[in-house]
Amino acid sequence: MKIKKGIPMINKHLSLLAYQKLVYIQRLFSVNDHPVSINESWISADLVPGIIEGGLMNGHLSSTLAERYDLKPARTENSVEALNASAATSHLLEIGYN
After folding, report:
1. Which of 52, 57, 65, 73 is most buried (most C-beta within 10 Å)?
2. Residue 19 has pLDDT above 90, yes or no
């Protein structure tokens, strides 16, 4: 989890001004203790002060947003993208890197 400066495409999608900072959260999802996917979430940093220091409650973003910040997402958007894995992603997913 880290704070990032505004990213035009993401800020626009989140209806944020270009300069507004974002919280970037990357989570590894596993099935039967085998990593299967990487999830990336972007949230306006203004909505979640202290989330970096406080971390996610029990590793759950939705619980953290609801209980700590009284935020209930009106909608979420999921997408699946098949890519050639970078060395870092290959390491996370425990797959070979070419």
Report:
1. 65
2. yes
**In terms of C-beta density within 10 A (0-12 exposed, 13-18 middle, 19 or more buried), how is residue 10 classed?**
middle
Helical H segments across the chain, by residue range: 8-13, 51-54, 61-69, 87-93
Residue labelled with tokens 């996370």:
92
Residue 50 amino acid letter: G
| HSE value, Cβ hemisphere, 13 Å, CA-based, for 95 | 15
Distance (Å, whole) CA 12 – CA 57: 28
Which three-class secondary structure state does DSSP give residue 39? Answer: strand
pTM of the model: 0.82
pLDDT of amino acid 10: 94
Q: What is the CA radius of gyration of the chain?
A: 15
Three-state DSSP at 61 gives helix
